[in-house]
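Hi everyone, sorry if this is the wrong subforum. Our group has a chain we'd like a structural model of before ordering constructs, and none of us has done structure prediction before. Sequence below.
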Amino acid sequence: MRAGESADLFAPDVPERPARPVPRKTVTPPRPVAPAAAAQALCAELWLGVQVVVGEAPPAQEPSSALTRLATLALRLTPRVALAPPDGLLLEVRGSLHLFGAVEGLRREMHAACEQCGLRGTLAFAPTPLAALTAARAGQPLAVLDAAQLIGRLSPLPLTALRWPPRLLERLACIGVRTIGQALRLPRAGFAQRFGAAQRKDLDRLTGHAGDPRERFEARLRFRRRRELPFELDSRTALLAALGPLLAELEQFLEARQCGVLTLECRLWHRGHRPSRSTLRLAAPLADARRLEELLAERLGALSLPAPVHACELRSGLPVPRVALSGGLWQPGEQGGSPQAGAPQLIERLRARLGSEAIHGLACAQDHRPEAAWRATEPGERSGEGPGACRCAASPLWLLPSPRRLPERGGLPRYRGGLRLASEPERIETGWWDGAEVARDYYIALDSHGRRLWLFRERSPPHRWFLHGVFG
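Answer:
Right subforum, don't worry. Here is the predicted structure as tokens:
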């Protein structure tokens, strides 16, 4: 025993236990995100942000309607368009780069659309929608195609482009944070606790670390536009001039959809009176503003106005697909020329001058009675025959307005002399459900000159004979 140590001589010998190891807390390091996969996911989209100047909107339209019109024109570039009111627009254009000449081609097309709407805008391209919109709001026409450069290009932009509350921007400025890059360098947890989780989420959406879904813009199915006039008008010529811009917008609306209209309603508003209405019904889908103006001039010439007009409005029917027809080598009336191409123009002009009820088309109806087997339709409307349509074995093209009763001799009909029956009877029995029941036996008869007539004999007493049609 060493000096200074004491031992209990009576204590039993106990084997010395080994020291128990102290458990260590295992900390799993965060799994690094593969930069290639993140960049590939971020580069899957390319957004075009458009910041328009609201004050540039024409006086005839509201800023919101000007932005909606611009979004409608932007659908020609991509189907993924989203509004960012009150003065922003977003387009996903990754799939449109090869169609319009890359970034510069899309920039030219979008600037042309802005000029067409009477607007002036700043354009920026970025992999995330909020980044593209923020750069455009900052007045920087960036074109960031590589996700690795996104944060570096956004860092110099001011925080005011994010349009956060002014009080929050003042608090950030007090600690020397005035740009997006300075805000991104702050600790995440501390930033969210002091300045709000919503603003932290904005920074994540800006850099692509959080999703940023946008509601897709859907264009109107029908065209409807109203224009308030600077002063009241009562002249037909002045009214047509006032309707000119609306007709031009209608043409652009239809051209963007490759469609035309079959109905167009013009409403003229008066003070103290109900609006005057004039409806155009067209024979073929039409989108030409000049043709529509000519037809409206015909209709307005026959319209009686109760008072001067202070506003005008155009309302279209549902757009229908329009097939562009190529011009023929021969003019109508010449050898090989066909007048079919000019038929719709003739029908539309006649209806504009004489009224929509003056000209109509014909279509088969589902009825076995010959006098009820047709109906009046809009010119150019296609209507197939149903299973119940009249399907007589041999029926003439020309039917009398109403069957004409024929005299008889010896039980046989007569018409300008004796008639000879040249066919077996064809029986028609129908119409019991609508109170116009018929029960007839139809025959083809020949007169003394060899002309073929269409007759029928009643099946019920007194079994009279009637002439119903004449063959050509």
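For your construct planning: DSSP finds twelve helices and 19 strands in the chain. The radius of gyration is 40 Å.
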